[in-house]
């Protein structure tokens, strides 16, 4: 059984922890369990309830009214929301629930249906990437079983790779980008996403992949001379020293800009070498791609 903290519920639903506590006191739709040391925890059922309540509340339903709804009525009201943002959020919640409940067929059907209607790039921007951002905090806090993570990431990975394979090879574009993850980093989805976006825009990509030794990066960069290098850092090994990694790249490849995005850069407070450039949000990443 999955166990979630109130902070997990806040991150996944957007509802502040103190508001969730107030709801617990006033209404009966959520009742946390407690450990032997009296610490709150929530099951996947409580998480599902909070996601549904927060969605309806965001689009005009009073919590006191939601509290009186049956589970069937709650589901019907959610399906009746016709705003595009509400429909997107509903699908994101369904992806989260399918992952937690290990309903991988449901997870894949949601993705396939969206891709067939909207196309892969819109699925990436409006469904896959927001989903990864939403659950990324659970991976970092180990509140998702590794098996759940592997199952959903492999499904998403397959969709992205199929999309990349269908794209034509760049013909006229001369700009090239070397894509890699450093040693100790195996979370490849962010990098594959960039691979798709760059190739879709006709930019030449050199995809080195995950856990790339520094010697391989230096060899390829010196031999192929890409215009940029790019890495996306999600959760690296405990012995990974970010500052040493950046200093080493700058020392050996000072003339090739290295673009870094991902969870790790958002909290970095120290200075960085002049050849290193952080992209701390999806909009900054897309600005970089569009400026190439």
Characterise the protein shown here:
With 292 residues, this protein is of the alpha/beta class. It has three domains: 1-81, Multidrug-efflux Transporter Regulator, Chain: A, Domain 2 (Orthogonal Bundle), CATH 1.10.1660.10; 94-166, Methyltransferase, Methionine Synthase (B12-binding Domains), Chain A, domain 1 (Orthogonal Bundle); 169-291, Rossmann fold (3-Layer(aba) Sandwich). It is 58% helix and 12% strand. It is built from 14 helices and seven strands. A five-stranded parallel beta sheet has the order 4-3-5-6-7, with helices on both faces. Strands 1-2 form a two-stranded antiparallel ribbon. Helix 13 links the parallel strand 6 (258-262) and strand 7. The longest helix is centred in the middle third of the chain and has 21 residues, at 120-140. The radius of gyration is 21 Å and the shape is globular.
Record keyword descriptors for this entry.
292 residues; alpha/beta; Multidrug-efflux Transporter Regulator, Chain: A, Domain 2; Methyltransferase, Methionine Synthase (B12-binding Domains), Chain A, domain 1; Rossmann fold; 3 domains; five-stranded parallel beta sheet; two-stranded antiparallel ribbon; globular
Which structural category do the helix and sheet elements fall into? alpha/beta
Q: What is the approximate shape?
A: globular
Strand order of the largest sheet: 4-3-5-6-7
Order of helices and strands: HHEEHHHHHHHEHEHEHEHEH
Largest sheet: 5 strands, parallel
Q: What is the CATH homologous superfamily assignment of the largest domain?
A: Cobalamin-binding domain
* Low-confidence parts: none
Oligomer: single chain
Q: If you consult CATH, what is the topology of the largest domain?
A: Rossmann fold
State Rg. Answer: 21 Å
Number of discrete helical segments:
14
């Amino acid at each position: 059984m999955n166990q979630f903290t109130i902070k997990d519920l806040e991150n996944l639903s957007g509802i502040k922890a103190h508001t969730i506590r107030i709801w617990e006191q006033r209404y009966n739709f959520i009742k946390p369990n407690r450990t032997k040391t009296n610490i709150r925890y929530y099951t996947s059922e409580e998480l599902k309830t909070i996601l549904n309540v927060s969605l309806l509340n965001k689009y005009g339903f009073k919590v006191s009214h939601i509290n009186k709804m049956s589970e069937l009525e709650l589901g019907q009201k959610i399906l009746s929301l016709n705003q595009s943002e509400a429909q997107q959020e509903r699908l994101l919640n369904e992806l989260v629930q399918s992952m937690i409940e290990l309903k991988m067929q449901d997870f894949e059907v949601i993705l396939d249906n969206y891709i067939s209607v909207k196309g892969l790039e819109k699925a990436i921007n409006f469904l896959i990437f927001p989903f990864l951002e939403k659950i990324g905090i659970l991976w970092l806090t180990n509140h998702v079983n590794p098996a759940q993570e592997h199952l959903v990431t492999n499904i998403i990975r397959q969709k992205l790779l199929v999309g990349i394979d269908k794209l034509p090879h760049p013909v006229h574009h001369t700009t090239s980008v070397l894509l890699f993850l450093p040693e100790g980093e195996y979370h490849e989805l962010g990098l594959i996403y960039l691979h798709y976006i760059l190739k879709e825009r006709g930019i030449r990509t050199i995809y080195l992949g995950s856990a790339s030794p520094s010697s391989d990066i230096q060899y390829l960069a010196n031999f192929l001379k890409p215009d940029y290098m790019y890495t996306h850092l999600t959760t690296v090994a405990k012995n990974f020293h970010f500052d040493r990694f950046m200093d080493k790249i700058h020392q050996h490849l000072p003339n090739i800009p290295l673009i870094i995005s991902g969870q790790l850069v958002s909290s970095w407070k120290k200075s960085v070498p002049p050849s290193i450039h952080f992209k701390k949000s999806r909009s900054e990443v897309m600005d970089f791609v569009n400026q190439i």
